[in-house]
Specification:
Keywords: Kinase, Membrane, Phosphoprotein, Transferase, Transmembrane, Transmembrane helix. The chain is an alpha+beta fold. The strands form 19 sheets. Strands 61-67-66-63-64 form a five-stranded mixed sheet, with no helix packed on it.
Length: 1108
């Protein structure tokens, strides 16, 4: 670059000298013409530098298989394929996937040196130093692709250019001419160009620079020294010879190609129907061959050369710009031998400098234009520390630096002119503030040198100092011209002064602290609002508002004790709605004039950093805030914030206080510690571009899953499937996905959720991996989405259908099989059971027949016995009544006759007669009682009870009256529980039972001193137990067992037949109850219980019995 420019300059100087020497004639005219030509030649030199300033390249040095890229391809999915001298790389903006040479001859490249890439549908054909290989996208593998012609493999051919149409591959060889290969039949044809008319000795005469299939099935073949138009049979339609060796070619437009030569010239090929023409378009890089060509979306031609950098050619303007590697510019291209170029569908340019990785030029990558100092360029910014700005009437900027004096930035030429102490054109190198006081006068506040006044027309300077003027200090922090043309001067630690240029007078402003009354001199910022108030910011004591009343300035002090967030003031502005905003070291402050206080916005409200260094209002509800952590866009209505950092093109993360300006064109400029940034609001609007998502990886138990591996899950590459099926025991699943972008991929945020398992999205930042463990068998949908690189959520959701199969015992077929098996087993069991039943039935039928006969016989006998028994029972009953009648009558006679004896025979004459008569009476009574009992027993089995609802206490009172005399005679205490439950039964028979119990208790009372009988009851649920308890003689266990046996008596001294208890038990049984007797032994009393169903239950049973 330097040599070329120097040559132009030297020639120009020589021409000028000759011009001066010559003053007439043909020499004058010739020199004038020559002078004009060289002026034209020199003009692009300046233009080159202008354009170079606006191109910033990203560099990728690491990650590829090798640093020398040889060829590019953007495939239909958006991946960038990069061929190198040692392998093939697929780049997704974040990671490189590397494909290397085959080790087994089955999968992998047939050679690691890549020279050509051609996309063919789902596949990519790869030209290498040993033929071609084929990339299969469905499996994400590369396999060697041998070309076999009549049984022989074409070996060691280097195919640098590839085309395909109608099932035929067209392959341009590096040294052997052109091949056509019919994919279906394997038929190969070969073509070598006719070189007899070429007078150049070159071993690469048969090299094919470019092969292309034209729309009408003609073939264009560009060789090194001739270009031919062929038909499919490789017959020559037209030929044109070149004067220079051709190296590279691209399609420019329909039927037009551009070709670069080894001498640095650019040619244009025009194709008519049956002819070709070639013309030289431009000598781009004389002496330096053209290695690569590519057109941009703006129709500019980028030209990569050998050792001479990059040229950008605008054909319409006939304008060439030259870009070279610069050691002083870290964002320049990284090398001057450009082997490959690519323009992607979004307009991004990819550059492959030899052994220098990749360079990328993306107009939208950096949102902020960065202007910095270049120590090797005297026309650049003089110092990287930028303190202040001022704009002149032409839109050019005066820039105050910290160490380089003042720079004048001519926007039209994009050059900087420096005024500094170093070059003796200015009074100081450290400029803290700049003020345009007049159209041709600039005031600059300096560090230690007072105010330097520069006449912008004459470039002469004068200086105001504390020694020669009213200034209180030689360190001038800030300058302000108010609406009345007064100049406010901020002296470092010496307060504020006001100078009136009209009257040449000044005034010192005294500020007193509201806190302690001290004088405040540590002034840092000054600002005038639309109402004419002067706002003064300090280094450590807050903010003052100055208002002039009656010719005097009054001040209001704002500080941390009355609403200000921090006392260190960096910036003060007033927005388009007249709101005052104050930037401090501790947040942004919004002034409320109604309350005369400030609202604080800080980190808690979304600010990335609290140190607000500069503020610009875009008059569209946004404030732009420079901080110590980048730039923030703050929405004054919603409070929304957007943060920008070095990745967006900022000069650094740290900016300098109040180093801001809004230009007449609406540009915003912020100065910092590494130059300054220039931008407009539209430059940094959030991008709306939608990124393509793809599934990039699958792991099971943290092991990668590949097509046709032992896991058996994938038949294709994971990026090519839309559904996955897992076994129930494949319980740890990791699914990786990515957004395909080359623009800040680290700023892309991701989210996913598994429908059927989760109800909401998982927002995972820049870590797009979905991990799930122990999913239940079932159907799921993994939904994935992302933002673009500006954090905007876009409509790019992709879905992956996931099936987790159940264990075999939970599958429908297994359940069906089990059901069928159970049914079969049930059927077999039932069949066997049926057979056994039938067998047993036959056996039982035989037995039943036998038993039936036997039972019939027994039945007949029982019927006969029953008849006999019934007859005998009737006879017994007749006998019983007869006996009772026949016996009672004689007994009555006997008793009657015995009663007459005392009347007829004096008893005193017969001393033993009275005793005999008494015995006769007792025996008659016993016999009478026995007969009555026998009669009653007979009646019990014959007479039905006349049941009714009975009041138990009434029955007991009646029974007590019947035995009242005995109780009194024997002094027995009888206690009857009141309100005992009712009984449903036969009145006379229940009285008989209670009477028997009481009579027995009296009979067997014995010789108790305090004889007692208690009548009570117990509730047993469905029954009641009516109890007669005495403390009489009791009985032993043996007696209890025989107590209800007829004719059994247990005390000889107690009269009775032994039938009473038997009779009352039969009465109880006839009522659905029973009788229980209990005694702990002789002499310990006894308890007799009448247990009967409760009245309600007994009544229900009686109704049921009656119904049935």
């Amino acid at each position: 670059m330097f040599g070329s420019n120097f040559l132009h300059l030297f020639t120009l100087i020589l021409c000028c000298n000759l011009f001066i020497i010559s003053n007439s004639g043909m020499l004058y005219k010739s020199l004038l013409t020559l002078f004009t030509i060289f002026i034209a030649l020199c003009t692009p030199i300046t233009l080159h530098s202008q354009y170079a300033e606006s191109l910033t390249f990203q560099h990728i040095q690491d990650g590829m298989s090798q640093s020398s890229a040889t060829v590019f391809l953007e495939d239909s999915f958006g991946f960038i394929w990069i061929g190198t001298r040692n392998g093939l790389n697929r780049y997704d903006g974040k990671d490189f996937e590397i494909y290397t040479k085959s080790l087994d001859g089955k999968t992998g490249l047939n050679h690691e040196y890549i020279v050509a890439l051609y996309e063919d549908g789902q596949n990519i054909i790869i030209g290498t130093n040993e033929g071609i290989s084929l990339y299969d996208r469905s499996l994400n593998i590369i396999t060697p692709y041998p070309l076999i012609n009549e049984g022989e493999t074409i070996k060691n051919e280097v195919f640098e250019t590839i085309a395909k149409r109608n099932g035929i591959l067209w392959l341009g060889s590096e040294s052997s001419g052109l091949y056509s290969y019919e994919i279906e039949t394997g038929k190969v044809k070969h073509f070598s160009p006719p070189n007899e008319n070429i007078k150049v000795e070159n071993p690469r005469l048969n090299k094919v620079v470019k092969v292309d299939v034209l729309d009408d099935n003609r073939i264009l073949a560009v060789f090194t020294y001739n270009t031919l138009l062929l038909n499919y049979e490789m017959d020559i339609i037209s030929e044109v010879l070149q004067t220079e060796e051709m190296v590279t070619s691209i399609n420019s437009s329909e039927n037009s190609f551009l070709v670069g030569s080894g001498k640095g010239s650019l040619f244009k090929l025009a194709i008519e129907k049956n002819s070709i023409s070639i013309t030289k378009e431009k000598d781009v890089s004389p002496g330096f061959g053209i290695r690569s060509l590519e057109k941009t979306l703006d129709n500019e031609l980028w030209i990569g050369t050998e050792n001479n950098g990059l040229y950008i050619y605008d054909e319409n303007l006939d304008f060439i710009r030259h870009i070279e590697y610069s050691v002083t510019k870290p964002n320049s291209i990284s090398g001057n031998s450009i082997w490959a170029l690519l323009c992607t569908r979004d307009g991004t340019m990819w550059i492959a400098p030899y052994k220098s990785g990749l360079n990328i030029y993306d107009k939208q990558y950096f949102k902020f234009k960065h202007i910095n100092s270049d120590p090797f360029n005297p026309k650049s910014l003089s110092n990287k520390l930028v303190n202040c700005f001022s704009e002149d009437e032409n839109g050019n900027l005066w820039i105050g630096t910290d160490g380089g004096g003042i720079d004048y930035w001519d926007r039209s030429s994009d050059t900087f002119e420096n005024y500094s102490l170093t070059n003796k054109t200015f009074a100081s190198n450290v400029v803290l503030s700049i003020l345009q006081t007049k159209d041709d006068e600039l005031w600059a506040g300096t560090w230690t040198n007072g105010i330097a006044i520069l006449n912008t027309k004459t470039k002469k300077t004068s200086v105001l100092t504390s020694e020669n003027s009213f200034l209180k200090s030689n360190i001038i922090i800030d300058l302000l011209k108010d609406k009345k043309e007064r100049i406010w001067i901020v002296n470092y630690f010496s307060g504020v002064q006001v100078y009136d240029p009209k009257t040449k007078t000044h005034q010192n402003i005294i500020l007193n602290s509201e806190v302690d009354g001290s004088i405040i001199n540590s002034i840092y910022q000054i600002f005038e609002d639309n109402q004419g108030n002067i706002w003064v910011g300090t280094l450590n004591t807050g903010l003052f508002k100055l208002t002039k009343n009656n010719g005097e300035w009054s001040a209001v002090h704002y500080h941390t004790k009355n609403s200000l967030s921090n006392n260190f003031i960096n910036a003060i502005i007033q927005d388009d709605e007249d709101t005052i905003w104050v930037g401090t070291q501790g947040g942004l402050n919004k002034y409320n004039p109604e309350t005369n206080s400030f609202l604080v916005i800080a980190k808690a409200d979304g600010l990335k950093n609290d140190a607000i260094k500069g503020i610009i209002d875009d008059q569209n509800t946004h404030l732009w805030l420079s901080t110590e952590e980048g730039i923030i866009r703050y929405n004054t209505n919603t409070g929304e914030t957007i943060n920008y950092d070095v990745g967006d093109g900022l000069q650094s993360k740290e900016f300098i206080a109040s180093s801001t300006i809004t230009t007449k064109k609406g540009e915003y400029i912020f100065g910092g510690i590494n130059g300054f940034n220039v931008f407009t609001a539209s430059d940094v609007e959030k991008r709306k571009d939608t990124l393509t998502l793809f599934v990039s990886g699958l792991k099971l138990f943290n092991q990668p899953v590949l097509p046709n591996d032992d896991f058996g899950i994938l038949k294709k590459d994971i990026s090519q499937v839309d559904s996955l099926t897992f076994n129930y025991d494949q319980s740890v699943i990791n699914i990786d996905f990515k957004a395909l972008t080359f623009r800040h991929p680290e700023s892309v945020n991701y989210a996913f959720y598994l429908e059927g398992f989760e109800k909401d999205w998982n927002y995972v930042g820049n870590n797009p991996t979905a991990t799930y463990t122990n999913l239940n068998p079932g159907e799921y949908i993994l939904r994935m989405k992302s933002t673009n690189s500006d954090g905007v959520w876009v409509d790019n959701e992709i879905d992956l259908y996931i099936t987790v199969t159940p264990p075999y015992w939970q599958t429908w077929w297994f359940k069906t099989l089990m059901i069928a098996l159970v049914l079969i087993l049930f059927y077999i069991a039932q069949h066997i059971k049926l057979l056994n039943i039938r067998k047993n039935q036959r056996r039982l039928e035989l037995k039943v027949d036998e038993r039936t006969k036997e039972l019939q016989f027994q039945k007949n006998k029982l019927i006969e016995a029953a008849d006999n028994l019934a007859s005998k029972n009737e006879e017994i009953q007749r006998f019983t009544y007869a006996v009772s009648h026949d016996l009672k009558s004689p007994l009555g006679n006997i008793r009657g006759l015995a009663s007459l004896i005392p009347l007829e025979v004096p008893l005193e004459d017969h001393p033993g007669l009275a005793e005999y008569l008494s015995l006769i009476d007792v025996s008659c009574n016993n016999m009478n009682e026995l007969i009555s009992d026998i009669t009653e027993i007979a009646r019990l089995g014959k007479i039905d009870n006349k049941n009714e609802l009975l009041k138990t206490n009434e029955l007991l009172d009646l029974s007590r009256n019947l035995i009242k005399g005995k109780l009194k005679q024997l002094n027995i205490e009888l206690t009857i529980t009141e309100n005992m439950p009712d009984i449903f039964g036969d009145r006379n028979r229940i009285i008989q039972v209670f009477g028997n119990f009481l009579d027995n208790a009296i009979k067997y009372m014995g010789d108790q001193e305090s004889p007692k009988i208690i009548v009570t009851y117990e509730d047993n649920g469905d029954t009641n137990s009516f109890m007669v308890i005495d403390n009489g003689s009791g009985m032993h266990e043996g007696a209890l067992k025989k107590l209800f046996t007829p004719f059994e008596r247990f005390h000889d001294n107690v009269k009775g037949t032994g039938l009473g208890l038997y009779m009352v038990k039969q009465i109880a049984i006839s009522h659905g109850g029973t009788i229980i007797a209990e005694s702990e032994g002789e002499g310990k009393g006894a308890t007799f219980k009448l247990i009967l169903p409760k009245a309600k239950i007994a009544a229900q049973n009686a109704r049921k019995s009656l119904i049935s």
